[in-house]
Amino acid sequence: MSDSKNTRRGFLAASATMAAGLGFVAVAPGIRLIEAAAAEGKTASGKVRLGLLIDTNRCAPSCNACVGACATENGIVEDVANPRQRAQWIRKIDLVENKTGRAHSLPMMCQHCANPPCVDVCPTGASFKRVDGIVLVDRHICIGCRYCMMACPYKARSFVHQPLTTQNPEVPRGLGCVEACTFCVQRVDRGLKPACVEACTSGAMTFGDLNDPDSDISKRLREASSTQVRADLKLDTGVRYQGI
Amino acid sequence: MTMKTEFNRTEENLFYVLLGIGGLVTAVGLGAALYMEHMGHVVTGMNNQIVWGLPHVFAIFLIVAASGVLNVASIGSVFGKAPYKPRAALSGLLCIAMLAGGLAVIMLDLGRADRLVVAMTHFNPTSVFGWNVILYPGMFGIVAVYIWTLMEKRMYPYSKPVAVTAFIWRLLLTTGTGSIFGFLVARQAYQSAILAPMFIIMSFAWGLAVFMLVQKAMFAWNDMELHPAIRSRMKNLLGVFVAAVFYFVAVYHLTNIYFAKEVAFERFILVDGGIYPTLFWGGWLFLGTILPLAILYLPGISAMRGSVMAASLLVILGAFCQLYVFIIGGEAFPLEIFPGMTASSSFFDGQIDTYAPSLPEFLLGVSGIGIAFTMTVVGVRVLGFLPQDNIAKLEAAGSLTD
User: Fold this and answer.
1) Do the chains contact at B122 and A125, CB–CB below 8 Å?
2) Which residues of B touch A126 (CB under 8 A)?
3) Is A68 helix (H, G, I), strand (E, B) or coil?
4) So what's the ipTM on this one?
5) Where residue B60 falls among pLDDT bands split at 50, 70, 90?
6) How far apart are the C-alpha atoms of A139 and A126, rounded to whole Å?
């Protein structure tokens, strides 16, 4: 009897060791990826608040350069028949004021809120805000509940509805997870601007540190009035607009 | 009345037929979930605007009704109403069964259903979903202990404190379910503190309706008749709950109509939103509220055989209509990102979204009912969940009409 108990205990102990070992192997690649990324570029700083200013007066309704650049940089190529199920990290919205008929166009994406509702509602903490203000989704722990999509006031998030075949290795995406604009974090960490900003030749987009009074974005925000979309919600967005 | 302990051949066969039906519905639903898991949500009608669809209608009905069905036990054990006490165990079983069915649907609809362990090991304290990860399993545990205190003589003394704990816990649980929507800051349909108490009262009505149906079926199966006095008080209670739901829904919509910023949304839901006004007025208000109230309270009809069962079925039908309007209608109306402007984009900004549920998501939703049904059938077959009314004792104590 005691022998059988010992055998069972031995089996359980061996199983537990194997499970722990497997867990380590499963987690280790993720850790290494993060370490590698950090070693290659800058580490995010809490003294920085990254933001984007969009001047809608300079944004042509027919221009989609920012949308195309985002798709190329982040590998957003989907062959989904239903357009309502396609992921869109950045989109152009055409607006017409109801009273005056004034028309304008602007790019809309994750607003990288200081108080992001998506982060508040995420049950696992997969939606998180980096110290420099970039709001991201940790694809390792997103369970695909879509609660963040319900909470986002900007319709900025997309759910991957279909298996993906082409991906940019730097921008992992996955079926069943939620995703959104990352401010091209992989570029920002190398000291580059987001792809959309670089592609915008009209000068409508200015990217930089909102906390640095000498940055271009801070200077432009001082010079002319700007708007936060749905400012009534007091989310303190990182993306600001001029001209709306 | 003596306790019935033996099943005859017909009952035995009926049990296996019911078990087969429940098992089949569950298996088909699980197959649909596997298909969705493999192909992705591209095979559903859900999209980037209507992100929660028909599975959530089924799941939320089951979870809310699971909380409410325990009301029957609470009335007996917490508030001391004797006629409800023999029903406490069945009420607990139904609670566990429906909670299991609802949770299974929610979990299997996840984009990454395989990450169930992640959901249980990563906890965000600011998320209402996160709270529910504690509230739902907690409910299973408390109700299981509660049933134990009802069925095991040595545990009888602990029945009352466990019942009180279960009562408080289920109020928290349904507050959590209502707050999933109540805490959404941006969607016109939600963002309201009234949703938490509204969900609680909805749970009372839906849970009692489900209980009445199951009780009726079990009594019929055992050639038993519900005593008219007990039937009368339970049907009256159902009526009160249905009327209370009407009150909360009316206040919710009237408040919205008063706010200029919500008028367009209310117009969509109540007047020109296509299927949603139809389901609201015809489904929830007429079929799910007015008709059951008439059946339950009109003297000529309420005494008729099968009237309570018809009213209960209508209340459940109304519940599904209400949830469809609330969840899917609420998402179909576009987010007002730029007030005072008309927006258009390739991402359907400013447009009413369309939603056509696909067969797999419907089957997944129905499987939640299949799971609850199967667990109930097995539960009542193997343990003594059949309510046994001691009418003479109740009459002597004056408890039938108090």
Assistant:
1) yes
2) 122
3) helix
4) 0.91
5) very high
6) 7
Q: Quote the radius of gyration of chain A (alpha carbons, Å).
A: 22
- Cβ neighbours, 10 Å, residue B19: 15
Which of B128, B340, B344 is facing A97, going by the closest CB pair? Answer: B340
> What value does the mean pLDDT take over residues A49-75?
96
SS3 state at A135: strand
The predicted model scores a pTM of 0.90
pLDDT at position B304, please?
Answer: 86
Closest to A138 (Cα-Cα) out of A159, A124, A152: A124
> Which residue is it, tokens 């867990």?
A23
Domain coverage including residue B128: 19-337+344-376
CA dist list (Å): B23 to B370, B377, B384: 7, 11, 22
Beta strand extents in A98-204 (DSSP E only): 103-109, 127-129, 135-137, 158-159, 178-179
Alpha helices in chain A (DSSP H): 2-40, 65-74, 117-121, 147-151, 185-188, 195-199, 216-223
Neighbour-count burial for B214-233, b at 16+ CB within 10 Å, e otherwise: bbbebeebeebebeebbbbb
Q: Min CA distance, A41 vs chain B (Å)?
A: 28
pLDDT range class, residue A31, cuts 50, 70, 90 = very low
Mean pLDDT for chain B overall = 92
Q: Among B241, B399, B398, B216, which residue's Cα sits nearest to residue B315?
A: B241
**Cα-flanking dihedrals φ and ψ of residue B309, to 5°?**
-65, -45
- At residue B382 the predicted structure's pLDDT band, cuts being 50, 70 and 90, is confident
| Phi and psi angles of residue B24, each rounded to the nearest 5 degrees, phi first | -65, -45
Partner-chain contact A175 B111, CB within 8 Å: yes
What residues does A178 pair with on adjacent strands?
A: A159
Res. A223: pLDDT tops 90? yes
Q: How many CA atoms lie within 13 A of B274 on its CB side?
A: 10
E strand or H helix that includes residue B230:
helix B228-258
Phi, then psi, of A178 in degrees rounded to 5? -100, 145
Mark which residues 228-257 of B lie under 8 Å from A by CB.
Answer: none
Closest CA–CA distance from residue B335 to any residue of chain A (Å): 7
Q: Which residues of B touch A82 (CB under 8 A)?
A: 42, 47
Q: Which of A86, A105, A94 is nearest to B350 (CA)?
A: A94
Nearest in space to B337 (alpha carbons), one of B347, B328, B327:
B347
pLDDT at res. B106 = 95
Q: Mean pLDDT across the stretch B298-324?
A: 93
pLDDT in tens, B117-134: 998 899 999 999 999 889
CA atoms within 13 A of residue B306's CA, in its CB half-sphere: 1
- Contact list, B331 vs chain A (CB under 8 Å): 150
**Domain of residue B75, CATH code:** 1.20.1630.10
Domain count, chain B: 1
Indicate whether A153 pLDDT > 90.
yes
Q: Is the CB of B130 less than 8 angstroms away from the CB of A85?
A: no
